[in-house]
Amino acid sequence: MLRANYNWSLSDRIDSYYQRYICGDYCDLRTKVVITPLTCSLGGATGNPWSNKGKKKSPVNIQITELPKLKQARPWYDEIDSTVLQQNLRRLDNAYNNFFQQNRGFPKFKNRSTFRSFTYATGVKIKGNKIYLPKLGWVKFYNSRPIPDGFKIKSVTVRKKSNGYYVSVRIEDKSISTFPIKKLEEITTITGLDMGLGKLVYCSDSSAIDNPKFATNKTTKRLQKIRQRRVSRKKKRSNNRRKAQQRLSRLSHRITVKREAYQWQTAKKIVSKSDAIAIEDLQISNMIKRCKPKYDENTGRFLKNGQSAKRALNRLIADASWYSLTQKIEYMAAKSGKIVLKVNPRHTSQECSVCHHIDPDNREGEKFLCTNCGHVDDANFQAGINIKNKAINHYGLNIVKKVRRDLPKPKQLTLFETPTSELTENKRRKRLRDAPSHGASPINQEKHYPRKSKRDVPGNLKEYTFQLSLFNQENNHPDRDSL
Ligand SMILES: [Zn+2]
After folding, report:
1. CA 415 to ligand 1 centroid distance, Å
2. What is the whole-number distance in angstroms between the Cα of residue 369 and the centre of ligand 1?
3. Which of 234, 339, 371, 393 pairs with 361 at a CA distance of 20 to 30 A?
4. Is the residue at 112 inside a domain?
5. Same structural domain, 293 and 229
């Protein structure tokens, strides 16, 4: 019912746009239907685009004031709560605003699979594990977090996801003051962050946070591929296809839930490090754009443009979802009274943090070697330090430098011992090719370790490493004689 209302209101707004070009008392050139509130909420005998104060009503308010008339014509609207209907129209208005102000796409007509949620403004009550939704009645639900005392329910959204219905409750307590935010002068410590793929975050204090690659690791990629294939092999519009589709979307839901949880933990860890956090101001949508197609001018055929290689990188970037991580960092920072400073990402990976010499040749893959002063470091940590320095200069911070005399100097990586943990698929293949072909190369050996079971937890590596060390000892090598 709500979807019908949404789609009707959208077509109403489109109609009223074209109506500006029509002279006459009809609303559509083709059908010449006379204007009434039921064909178009603008115009007609009762439709009034002006409010009592003489101001022009916003489109959403025009549509909301026409709702009672719509209800008379469609008695089945009575089964919907009135605040839900109004919120439905506001949602359409948001879509329009996004289109005009944020350069997003034009609002779309919704179908079954794209219309999944609705919002209550008032009237919802919660008691234990039951929630009262107006016009739906008391519904049992899993109450994951009780509402603290003194808070009022502001709005409630019910959402359909692949594994059930979810309800999110927005609450407010006006007596609680907002979180105090530190001023720029009060900041004494700062951490620079560089987002990456090998590790998710490289901090300027030379610590890093792992990137678990929830959607792009080998196991998940394979599983996703299988599930997707099962969907596309089923007959269209069949029950079996629907079921296979559900299994696929349950998998992707599981991936998102894991990623969200990990990002919250990461954000908390990062924010606890210092008073302020400096981040690059990245345009990620530009980074994952497709390559431009190339043509052969004589034959008109398409040439290779490198998109197939870039696609894998795009997927890795999308899986890391840096933007949602920065949003979470900002949220956690605001909650604990800290500041997130954004920095122009220009030259952050090419600058030397010691002598500030900028040269694209400074960096080669993971290695960083300054062509001016010979400073050697891991390139990613260099970027973190540069971002921190940029933020200090740009915002004029007075940072207290910590002198740690009792602690040994942090271990500096030499040029040729950069971590090899993040071999890309191509590099790994190349190594395999270059390695001697009798199968004794360490990379080939790795492939033959037996997996204990399908449900083997990757975190539990105790037994696994024990096996590894056994296997590497020359004496116990089973194939030693045959080799
Ligand atoms: Zn240098």
Report:
1. 15
2. 8
3. 393
4. no
5. yes
Residue 424 Cα to ligand 1 midpoint, Å, equals 29
From the DSSP assignment, how many helices (H) and strands (E) are in the chain? 13, 16
Among 421, 427, 464, 410, which Cα is nearest to 210's? 421
231-240: average pLDDT: 95
Q: How many CA atoms lie within 13 A of 217 on its CB side?
A: 9
CA 348 – ligand 1 centroid, Å: 13
- Is 363 found in the same domain as 219? yes
One domain for residues 8 and 46: yes
Which pair of tokens denotes residue 284? 């990620």
- 449: pLDDT strictly greater than 70: no
pLDDT digits (tens, 9 = 90+) for 103-142: 889 999 999 889 999 999 999 999 999 999 999 999 999 9
Cα 276 to middle of ligand 1, angstroms = 26
- Kindly state whether residues 202 and 338 are assigned to the same domain: yes
Distance of CA 362 from the midpoint of ligand 1 (Å): 9
Per-residue pLDDT tens for 169-198? Answer: 999 998 888 888 888 888 888 999 999 888
Q: What percent of the chain is predicted at pLDDT more than 70? A: 77
Domains in the chain: how many in total?
Answer: 4
Are both 225 and 297 inside the same structural domain?
yes
Centre of ligand 1 from the C-alpha of residue 355, in Å: 4
Same domain flag for 315 and 223: yes
Domain C-terminal end among 400, 417, 434: 417
Q: What is the pTM of this model?
A: 0.71
Task: Looking at the structure, tell me whether residues 18 and 68 fall in a common domain.
Answer: yes
Q: Is residue 121 part of a domain?
A: yes
Please give the pLDDT value at position 233.
Answer: 96
Q: Are residues 54 and 82 in the same domain?
A: yes
- Residues 414, 420, 425, 427, CA torsion sign: positive
Partners of residue 376 on adjacent β-strands:
369
Among 47-51, 207-211, 224-228, 381-385, where is mean pLDDT lowest?
47-51
Residue 359 alpha carbon to ligand 1 centre in Å? 10
How many A from CA of 356 to the centre of ligand 1?
6
pLDDT digits (tens, 9 = 90+) for 6-42: 999 999 888 878 776 666 666 666 677 776 666 666 6
Indicate the pairing of strand 276-280 with strand 339-343. parallel
What's the 376 CA to ligand 1 centre distance in angstroms?
Answer: 9
Range of the domain at 439: 425-472
Q: Does residue 181 lie within any of the structural domains?
A: no
Reading the block at residue 153, the tokens are 């329910």
Locate all alpha helices (DSSP H) within 2-81, ordered by sequence.
2-19, 59-65, 67-73
Q: How far is the CA of 258 from the centre of ligand 1 (A)?
A: 41
CA of 428 to the centre of ligand 1 (A): 32
C-alpha of residue 204 to centroid of ligand 1, in Å: 17
Q: Is the pLDDT of residue 44 over 50?
A: no
- The helix, strand and coil proportions of the chain, stated in percent and rounded to the nearest 5, come to 40, 15, 45
State the distance from the centre of ligand 1 to the C-alpha of 405, rounded, in angstroms. Answer: 25
